[in-house]
Amino acid sequence: MIRIGLTGWGDHPSLYESETQASKLESYSSHFPIVECDSSFYAILPEKNYVNWAKETPDNFQFIVKAYQGLTGHLRGKSNFKNIGEMFDAFQASIGPMLQSGKCAVILFQYPPWFDCTRKNIDRLRYTKEKMKGIPVALEFRNPSWFSAGMKEKTLEFAEKEGWIHTVCDEPQTETGSIPIVSAAWGDRVLVRMHGRNTAGWLNHGPNWRKLRCLYRYNRAELEEWKSRLIDLERKAKDVYVLFNNNSGGDAADNGKQMIRLLGINYSGLAQKQLGFFEV
């Protein structure tokens, strides 16, 4: 099954009845069956957050939880934890309620652009997989060395053997900081993340980089191209999770709905949409 969703649920104005609505997540879950929780990347969250999110969503709604940045090397060793093992323990305790709810589809480990294909980093991946034993984990690279000539097949073989879920990315193609589209899948799950194709924004490291990085709207031809890929991926994996991350300009929700229509999907079990004041 192909499940379409967005990264985060708090920044998609077109989905809410009003900006003061008590639960944007509840409203979001009336439109899409999955969402990426990205606040978990910036902090190890209180367990109660996951308890509440699980309660606010329909029974068959699912979350892709982004792993804490300290676990993927984004902090470059700067941390208040004594060691990496203690950090893993804290993260797993944090997400415990989400795992217990049965609504956690994947934990996404997205590695930084400087995480290149070396023996040291391969060992780091093995360590991570061991620490997350029994939990579905997806692997996303940003350094192209993992898919360079002569390494692509080895990387895919390693990931499959170690039990990682593959992440297929659509993103600007730059010499550093991005990977090509590698449309592969194995097992029962594959993750797809649509970051847009704004090369200038992707390379921007200025003060407004968050507003520019994923400022992009996919056109119909590009979505049709991805429709074919998604159908092909569904033949290789039972569940295909697709996340639109091109929301710097608020385009993700529209593109996500457009893709749902192109695929002819009608999701059941979504939250009931709020009716307007005079509607019956």
From TrEMBL:
Annotated Gene3D superfamilies: Protein of unknown function UPF0759 (3.20.20.410)
InterPro entries for this protein: DUF72, UPF0759_sf
Organism superkingdom: Bacteria
Listed PANTHER family: UNCHARACTERIZED PROTEIN YECE, UPF0759 PROTEIN YUNF
Protein name: DUF72 domain-containing protein
Native organism: Sporolactobacillus putidus
